[in-house]
Amino acid sequence: MASSQLLTAPTASSDLQTEVLVLGAGMSGLCMGIELKQAGIDDFIIVEKQAGIGGTWWDNIYPGAHVDLPAPLYCFSFAPNSKWRQRFAAASEIQSYMERCSSHYGLLPHLRLNTKVETASFDEDTGTWVIQLSGPNGLQRVRTRFFICSTGPLSQVRWPSISGFETFSGRRLHSARWDQTYSAKGQRIAVIGTGSTGCQLIPKLAEEAKHLYVFQRTPNWIMPRLDRPYTFLDRVLANFPPYANSVRGFWYYFMELSRHGFTHGTVMRSIMMSTASYHLKRQVTDPLLREKLTPPYPMGCKRIIFSSDYYPAICKRNVSLVTIPIDHLTPSSIVTADGAERLVDTVVCATGFETTRLLSQLEIKGLSGRSLRDVWSDTPEAYLGVAVADFPNMFFLLGPNTATGHTSTLLYIEPQARHILNCIKVVRQGGYRWICVRREAQSAYNQALQQRLTNSVWSTCTSWYRNKSGRIVMLWPGTTPEYVKLLQENNSSGYFFMAS
Ligand code: NAP
Q: Is 192 in contact with 348 (CB distance < 8 Å)?
């Protein structure tokens, strides 16, 4: 039976037909496109609401934006990049890398930019998704067999809910919606938020601002960033696979080793904690300021920050660290709970993303018209992070509980894309109408996952990994090889197939 009124209408001749629709042209969407191409599946489109590819790297173009782990790990294993200019690559370098990959792997004809998915409903009779798009040519209905969502957890910006915020008459900027024409020169700026983004942005703004007020709610654990520029020789050597592979391999194992630092009582944890403490002590000599910057929660609970210029920026004469909570905003100032008022021209929000309400802006209806928004609410859950019961022929990249606290997200994207591709192949080769994850498999997987997360370091503070009730819905607790093995082992055992 068709699951919505929309679906009961016969397919209009103007409907676009495609085998696979990928939503989102960030790293994960592009990786999926490349895997499809390599497998000889050419009939797919990648839909992206922005005017260009890049996803989070298209959005995050604030001053100082860069990847917070060594760049040799921030490229696909099958497409090493010999053009990195520094170990912690800038956002613009990553954007260029993605553009080169899109072109090299022939993805450009598959891209539908400036196009949004409005609704998606599964048609049980035909085993296809009916997807309403809105784009440069108005509304268009697409029928696709497989629907792959690769929007990731960092796509919906979170503005702070502070009294009077809307009444502020100066500039209001969010780090992920940066206005590149903005100049900080001579401005009195307030930055709200000191997470990974704030710590990258603050040193750059401090270089130009007349005065920078940093509103810190929770101080974070910060490790030195072992950055260095890549020389001409580095770039030449990076073209030789044995060299490139050994550099990547080194960082891979180094980061995997750091996973032990998230477990209480390990030697790695002691090393990481003393490194961070020494870093703070060395860079901040004022004991009062140091105390304000000392994290009150166990290391690793929130994402560990790698920065060598954040503490020096905080120590600058034109920078004030404000730790008294914000009470409200007036049209021209920020007033803290102690009644102090600070006049500012610009409020910059580095307040992160709505991570737990994944895809909530979309109306996605699966079997019997079940809405993904209702099924998930703010507790998204999936089998292996890639599939959800009652949503056949639909997959996720960077879905629930697949973010990593210790290494590159690309190491998770690639095996997910391969897992999804294998599921697609099984359906196509077996002549099935659809594939869907078994409810029991999804429950068992998530029960074990949540059990493992209980009492883990990530359960000891609030963070974007957790929903309002405290459940950790974003993070994968194990090592990378462990997750990869799960994806390989469970290629079809957790699923059932509907015959045509
Ligand atoms: P975030 O980690 O969620 O940090 C948001 C910050 O805003 C926190 O300091 C938070 O304080 C503060 N905040 C939120 N609402 C507030 C309010 N109403 N009043 C005062 N402070 C408020 O967001 P993010 O820094 O954008 O980073 C998100 C993730 O993006 C990172 O963890 C990382 O995975 C990713 N990222 C990656 C890179 C990269 O290079 N790959 C770069 C940047 C970001 P509390 O801690 O008290 O909540």
A: yes
Mean pLDDT of the chain: 95
H or E segment at 434?
strand 432-437
pLDDT tens per residue, range 117-129: 999 999 999 999 9
Residues 451, 396, 195: CA angle, nearest 5 degrees? 70
Mean pLDDT, residues 426-448 taken together? 97
Q: To which H or E segment does residue 188 belong? A: strand 188-192
> How many angstroms separate the Cα of 323 from the Cα of each of 47, 287, 350?
42, 15, 16
In this structure, what token pair is assigned to residue 241? 């696979």
* Residues 26, 29, 32, 36, Cα dihedral to 10°: -120
* Mutation to probe ligand 1, out of 156, 166, 196 (largest number of atoms < 8 A from CB): 196
In a mutational test of the pocket of ligand 1, which residue from 27, 95, 197 has the highest number of ligand atoms less than 8 Å from its CB? 197
pLDDT number for residue 13: 54
| Strands of 82-136, DSSP E | 111-112, 116-123, 128-135
Helices (H) and strands (E) in the chain, counts: 14, 20
The tens digit of pLDDT for each residue in 22-50 reads 999 999 999 999 999 999 999 999 999 99
**Ligand 1 binding pocket, CB closer than 6 Å:** 66-68, 154, 160, 162, 192-198, 215, 217-218, 303, 326, 350-352, 462, 464
DSSP states of 274-289 as a string? Answer: HHHHHHHHHH---HHH
**pLDDT tens-digit readout, 134-161:** 999 899 999 999 999 999 999 999 999 9
Sequence-distant (6+) residues with CB within 8 A of 425 are 39
CA angle 228, 232, 234 (to 5 degrees): 60
Site to probe by mutation for ligand 1, drawn from 154, 217, 349 as the one with most ligand atoms within 8 Å of Cβ, is: 217
Contacts of 402 (CB under 8 A, 6+ apart): 385, 386, 412, 416, 474, 476, 483
From ligand 1's centre to the CA of 195, what distance in Å? Answer: 4
Start-to-end CA distance of the chain, whole Å, equals 14
> What pLDDT shows up at residue 288?
97
Q: How far is the CA of 463 from the centre of ligand 1 (A)?
A: 8
Query: pTM above 0.85?
Result: yes
Q: Closest Cα to residue 380, out of 362, 363, 355, 405?
A: 355
Residue 324 has pLDDT above 50, yes or no: yes
Query: So what's the pLDDT on residue 358?
Result: 87
